[in-house]
Amino acid sequence: MAVKRNIIIIITGVAIVLLIRLFYLQVLDGSYKITAANNALRYDVEYPARGMIYDRNGNVIVENIITYDIMVTPRELKTVDTAELSKIFRIQETEISDILKKIDRKKSFNAFTFLKQVPADIYAGFRERADHFPGFYSVARTMRVYQRKIGGNVLGYVQEVDTSVIRKNPYYRQGDYIGKSGIEESYEEVLRGKKGVSVYLRNSHGITVEPYEGGRLDSAAIPGRSLTSSIDADLQEYIQEIMINKAGSVVAIEPATGEILALVSSPIFYPEMLSGVGRQQNYARLREDVTNPLYNRAIMSAQPPGSTFKLVNGLIGLQEGTLTVNTSCYCAGRYPYGKGVGCHIHSSPVDFVNSIRVSCNAYYCYAFRNILENKKYPSIDSALMAWRARVQKFGFGRKLGIDMPSERQGIVASKNLYNKYYGVGRWNPLSIISLSIGQGEIGATALQLANMCATVANRGYYYIPHIIKHIDEGVHVDPKYYEKQYCEIDEKYFDYSIEGMYLAVNGGGTAGRAAIHDIKVCGKTGTSENPHGANHSIFVCFAPKENPKIAVAAIVENAGFGGTFAAPIASLAVEKYLKREISRTWEETRMKETDLITNNPAYAKKKFKF
Q1: pTM for this predicted structure
Q2: Residues 542-562: b if buried by 16+ CB within 10 A, e if exposed
Q3: For residue 2, what pLDDT is reported?
Q4: Domain that holds residue 203
Q5: What is the DSSP string of 187-203?
Q6: What is the DSSP code string of 271-289?
Q7: Domain match, 221 and 239 both
Q8: What is the 3-state secondary structure (H, E, C) of 348-411?
Q9: Which terminus of the chain is more solvent-facing, meaning fewer CB atoms within 10 Å of its CB: N or C?
């Protein structure tokens, strides 16, 4: 009897619990009610305006215009007048029919995108006739528009998300847009804002009748925050003009802040090519272009820095004590040991300052060998690794941390590389002597070279290069961009390097074509050996000599000596930035009119590797 009573009590208790739970789910718990009623509710997403992008002078570079996505709810569709829709949207009637065939008219209350980014003038015609097309409705969207002809590798572009993005980030849904490459990608979460939503109730016939619960669940979209970039739009546009029909990159940095004034990868593409109607066709064309304009050479293409790297080796030698500013070298046109390294004709002997002025290869072969044979290190291996660590302090062989995607770290040789190639204990300084002049197993991007030049201009430190100055509404730029990064070379040694760079431009050195009448430019030429064709022309410079305002690195592919193309291009950029006008119009004309691509066999190959 007692057992029977206990069973009754247990069954009654379970029933009460189930009834309470059912009451909570059906009456009290609104989330369950919403989930269960999904087919009776329609969710209209309100998309926020994407944040605008300005240049450092407050000029608008990227803004928005209103467009409309035309949506279709299959269960609400009636007979569709395709001829009328064709007239309204100005597309072929067969195209409309094809779209409608892909839409399931029987089962789904979920909305599908019928047309994307319909311009406001066309949408106005649809709005007047919207009541004739049940099941159709519109969603306001914004589309990027560009006020300046500035390359897409800096700004990036906006594209529709794919399934991989949706899987990784629950914020995005099919039909949403996301920043791709450049600033648009790096600052996506800042620029995109926050979506809003309006929830509507459908009746038993599937017709939308009223806001759900008086709009209690509705939320307004929050616009994206605008960005002020460090880019000088006039300078960026000017460098693009003088790099027309040339492959390469130019980066300009403000040494005092690390702010990037210009970042040009050439050949360029304009971001408007990947916005609006025709974006898919344009993207295919850009992908097929043998000059690879989608490839951001400025931060991705690591080339041997050539003789510009002598600045680093010289400073390391002075710091290590294996070289002094009075060390003198006689050059007979080559370094005479091992396989030898050739040198051009110049005055001889040369001391440290003049070795930079005339870019003596033999001088730096001796200097580099002395670094590796420094008796304070127990072996050549350890000396090389100590040298490598100092080189990395200048920003080579590692990512600098720019606020843009896809930065490459470049190459700096290590003992492991040579032990693997030659065998342990089977290599010596003569085996790797090409590193003395920036050749061999070393590669640097234009960004890294410009940063190195800014470090010299600052006499021993740099700020991590960055492309955003300010974010609206109190959002702060990453504090790492305001911290000094020291290369751990004594400040006193930089005066000698700078004097050598000044004489290279203004004292009968290798960079005379970079001279500007009333601006003290300090620079260093470089010629990078290229197994694919003609050598690359390289140049780094800063100006003025005292209180530098700009540091520039230029790499012009397949262009020969550093003084031929890279030097005048970089110095024209300096003059444009500091004076806002060009005095050497003949040099400007020559740079704009020279075509290094059209008849270059390197670009005739279908699969050219950069």
Answers
A1: 0.89
A2: bbbbeebbbbbbbbbbbbebb
A3: 59
A4: 49-76+109-229
A5: THHHHS-B-EEEEEEE-
A6: GGGGSSTTHHHHHHHHHH-
A7: no
A8: CCECHHHHHHHCCHHHHHHHHHHHHCCCCCCCHHHHHHHHHHHHHHCCCCCCCCCCCCCCCCCE
A9: N
Name every residue whose Cβ is closer than 8 Å to that of residue 3 and which is 6 or more positions away in sequence: none
Q: Is residue 249 located within the same domain as residue 128?
A: no
User: Do 107 and 74 touch, CB atoms closer than 8 A?
Assistant: yes
DSSP code of residue 47:
P
Distances (CA, A) of 548 to 1, 20, 69, 520, 522: 100, 76, 50, 10, 10
Instruction: Tell me how many domains the chain contains.
Output: 2
Is the per-residue pLDDT at 33 higher than 50?
no
Peptide bond preceding 134 in cis form (omega within 30 of 0): no
Report the Cα 572 to chain-centroid distance in Å: 24
Any idea which residue has 């007239």 for tokens? Answer: 87
Q: How far, in Å, CA of 118 to CA of 133, rounded?
A: 17
* CATH number of the domain within which 455 lies: 3.40.710.10
**Burial label, 58 (beta-carbon count in 10 A; 0-12, 13-18, 19+):** exposed
Nearest residue to 350 via CA among 368, 367, 375, 370: 367
Within this chain, do residues 200 and 219 fall inside the same structural domain, yes or no?
yes
Q: Are residues 420 and 434 in the same domain?
A: yes
Residue 130: burial class (beta carbons within 10 Å; 0-12, 13-18, 19+): middle
Where is average pLDDT lowest: 97-106, 339-348, 501-510, 531-540?
A: 97-106
Token duo for residue 450: 């410009």
pLDDT, one tens digit per residue, over 523-573 is 999 999 887 788 999 999 999 999 999 999 999 999 999 999 999 999 999
